[in-house]
């Protein structure tokens, strides 16, 4: 059952928050030794949160919208008094003295914290393999990756280890793991949700969003976390609409654009293409009009992103110098200079992928190259945004596959970083344009692995996004036919 059903049962006294929490803690104990979705399980905090909700209900108090709902949080969101490691040795012992805006809003809404989930180190990766504490595994097939960087959050929802989870999306890090794990993943408009307390990777691209088992649950979580924040200068000062009310609006007459370039990719799995086109046909049967659209600069997204994102990462990660906080390497017997100590701390504290991106970004921003690379990438970013603007003059929502393939096996791209980067080929342009997008399940391949459908709308059009996604989800009933034997026992 979803959040609405649980909330109704809780208010009627048919189930307690403590019972719901214990059920999920037992599930974590049973399956997480295999899945490794969590880096830390906050069992006592969860029980305390749940007991507080039960006490309020017993006293007749009005319950908040997420009362008793057990959630997991990606471990790059600061949680006061609870370690926030970013899956890096650099922050292995960091305990934030403050709460991020989004997690604070969840606790105000009555949610229960089950723990912090695994991710690619500093959110840099597409498989969770770069985590300094070991990878998470896909619940559908533990020999395959759950995607990344928010792989732990996606796997936790897919394996029933929480009712919902938060992730962050810089180039597809919510939508791609949602596709691989067969759950719903929502990336809001840039600025719709506060980034205060999110450990920065690429500040102009990062956005926080939910993983859920249904579109309706995604609307519930977004309702709780969206809105202006005076502590985040990039957070938009606009009203937050009623996202749950948008779910039941009819979709008849809406124009759905199929981005031509996305369906012509040479690496697109035929099973993925067929499943996504079948989903488009279902929307057409619901009364939507399918329109062929072109975004000529879509294919430039990868090259553009891998200049801008590493450049911003090199600036953001410069603060980790072994002095103020974070990991500090052991000094030599005779003592080290500040430069030597900093270099050794970064070399030992950061993993290979993080070091690679810092070096790329530092090079792109260096004198003599900043115009040729970084400034040029920003110009192409503008062209990508204009392509989307033109597309939305003709359609209401865009439709693409979320990922070119289903979940790949561990080690498949370990020695080929470029192949790993291409896993986000279809999601990255959305981040460059700052648009909202959502991935939801639309079928399975021949091996029983989930396939994700990506929907994209214009700026601050999350209502439309949820409306179309919910209509498809309710009509297709995709998950009703999923191969149960594929899920971890």
Order of helices and strands: HHEHEHEHEHEEHHEHHEHHHHEHHEEH
Distance between the termini: 19 Å
Helix content: 25-40%
Number of helices: 17
The percentage of residues in β strands lies in 5-15%
How much is the average pLDDT?
94
Structural class: alpha/beta
What's the count of strands?
Answer: 11
CA-atom Rg in angstroms? 22 Å
Biggest sheet layout: 11 strands, mixed
Low-confidence stretches: 478-486
The backbone outline, from C-alpha atoms, is globular
Verbal overview:
It is built from 17 helices and eleven strands. By secondary structure, it is of the alpha/beta class. Strands 1-3-2-4-6-5-10-11-9-7-8 form an eleven-stranded mixed sheet, with helices on both faces. Helix 7 packs antiparallel against helix 17 and helix 11 packs across helix 14.
Provide a compact summary of the structure:
The chain has 489 residues and is α/β, with parallel strands linked by helices.
Name some characteristics of this structure.
11-stranded mixed beta sheet, alpha/beta, 12% strand, 489 residues, 11 strands
Topology:
Blueprint (H helix, E strand, L loop, with lengths): L2 H10 L4 H19 L2 E4 L1 H16 L11 E5 L26 H8 L3 E6 L33 H8 L5 E6 L5 H7 L2 E4 L19 E6 L2 H11 L17 H4 L8 E5 H4 L6 H16 L3 E5 L7 H16 L21 H12 L2 H13 L6 H24 L2 E5 L15 H5 L6 H6 L3 E8 L5 E7 L5 H15 L13
Helix pairs in contact: 2-3, 5-6, 7-17, 11-13, 11-14
């Amino acid at each position: 059952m979803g959040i609405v059903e649980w909330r109704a049962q809780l208010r009627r006294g048919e189930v307690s928050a403590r019972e719901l929490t214990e059920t999920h803690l037992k599930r974590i104990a049973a399956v997480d030794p295999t899945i490794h979705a969590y880096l830390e399980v906050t069992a006592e905090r969860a029980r305390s949160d749940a007991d507080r909700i039960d006490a309020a209900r017993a006293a007749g108090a009005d319950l908040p919208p997420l009362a008793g709902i057990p959630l997991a949080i990606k471990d790059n969101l600061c949680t006061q008094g609870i370690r926030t490691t970013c899956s890096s040795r650099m922050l292995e012992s960091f305990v934030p003295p403050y709460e991020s805006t989004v997690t604070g809003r969840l606790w105000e809404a009555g949610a229960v914290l089950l723990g912090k989930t695994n991710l690619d180190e500093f959110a840099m990766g597409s498989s969770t393999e770069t985590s300094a504490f070991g990878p998470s595994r896909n619940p559908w097939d533990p020999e395959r990756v759950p995607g990344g960087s928010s792989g732990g959050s996606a796997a936790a929802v897919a394996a029933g280890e929480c009712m919902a989870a938060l992730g962050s999306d810089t180039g597809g890090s919510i939508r791609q793991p949602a596709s691989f794990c067969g759950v719903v993943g929502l990336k809001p408009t840039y600025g719709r949700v506060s980034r205060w307390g999110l450990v920065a990777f690429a500040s102009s691209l990062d956005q926080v969003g939910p993983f859920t088992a249904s579109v309706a649950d995604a609307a519930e979580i977004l309702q709780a976390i969206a809105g202006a924040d005076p502590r985040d200068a990039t957070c938009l000062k606009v009203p937050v609409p009623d996202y749950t009310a948008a779910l039941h609006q009819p979709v008849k007459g809406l124009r759905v654009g199929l981005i031509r370039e996305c369906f012509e990719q040479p690496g697109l799995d035929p099973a993925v293409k067929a499943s996504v086109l079948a989903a488009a046909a279902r929307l057409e049967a619901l009364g939507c009009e399918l329109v062929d659209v072109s975004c000529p600069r879509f294919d430039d997204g990868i090259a553009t992103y891998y200049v801008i994102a590493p450049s911003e990462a090199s600036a953001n990660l410069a603060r980790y110098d072994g002095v103020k906080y974070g990991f500090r390497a052991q000094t030599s017997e005779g003592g080290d200079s500040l430069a030597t100590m900093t270099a050794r701390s970064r070399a030992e504290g950061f993993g290979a992928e993080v070091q690679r991106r810092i070096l790329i970004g530092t090079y792109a921003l260096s004198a003599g190259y900043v115009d040729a690379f970084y400034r040029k990438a920003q110009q192409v970013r503008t062209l990508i945004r204009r392509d989307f603007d033109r597309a939305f003059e003709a359609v209401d929502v865009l439709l693409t596959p979320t990922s070119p393939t289903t979940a790949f096996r561990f080690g498949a791209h370990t020695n080929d970083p470029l192949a790993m980067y291409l896993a986000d080929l279809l999601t990255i342009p959305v981040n460059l344009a700052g648009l909202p997008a959502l991935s939801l399940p639309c079928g399975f391949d021949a091996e029983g692995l989930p396939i994700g459908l990506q929907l994209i709308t214009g700026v601050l059009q999350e209502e439309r996004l949820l409306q179309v996604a919910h209509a498809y989800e309710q009509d297709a009933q995709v998950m009703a036919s999923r191969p149960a034997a594929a899920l971890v026992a």
